Amino acid sequence: MEHPWHFDTNEFTVSLLTQEPEDGGVFEYCPNIRSAEAENFGDVRRVLTGHGGDLVRGLRLRPGDLQLFRGRYSLHRVAAVRGDTARHTAILAYSERPGVIGSVARTRQLFGRVLPEHLAAEGRAVRVDRLLD
Ligand SMILES: [Fe+2]
Predict the structure, then answer these.
(1) Which among 30, 38, 98, 117 is least surrounded, fewest beta carbons within 10 Å?
(2) pLDDT at 73 over 80
């Protein structure tokens, strides 16, 4: 299992690793690769095509590590987990604007399912900026 490259819908998260995998599962991120005003497609493309290694940082989290992260502007993923022990993380997502909810497509890509709230909000996206995703 792994969590693919993405930007968060909300501005920032607080996450807590609760179970470490035997191997793999490194949190990889590109700090502020885009901003609320600029998509920076060139650098994002480099990372997504495997040519932006200089932009990627890795963080091996341990159980109990608390992470404050601005995922709206920092492309990120969790690399493949190996071994029999799953990687578990509690993630609390925050936005300064009420009504921010992931699109149906993005939520399904990331979590494999959607809730009725995602379906009801489709086409009425509330975001803090005008970025595409
Ligand atoms: Fe994320």
Answers:
(1) 98
(2) yes
Query: In angstroms, what is the span from residue 7 Cα to ligand 1's centroid?
Result: 6
Whether 31 shows a pLDDT value over 90: the answer reads yes
| Spans of all domains in the chain | 3-96
Query: H helices then E strands: how many in the chain?
Result: 3, 9
Alpha carbons 56 and 48: distance in angstroms, whole number: 11
Q: Are 9 and 127 in contact (CB under 8 A)?
A: yes
In this structure, are residues 87 and 21 in contact, taking their beta carbons and an 8 Å threshold? yes
Give all strands of the β-sheet with 88-94 in edge-to-edge order. 66-69, 12-19, 88-94
Residues 44/131, Cβ–Cβ less than 8 Å: no
Q: Can you tell me which residue has the tokens 């341990």?
A: 62
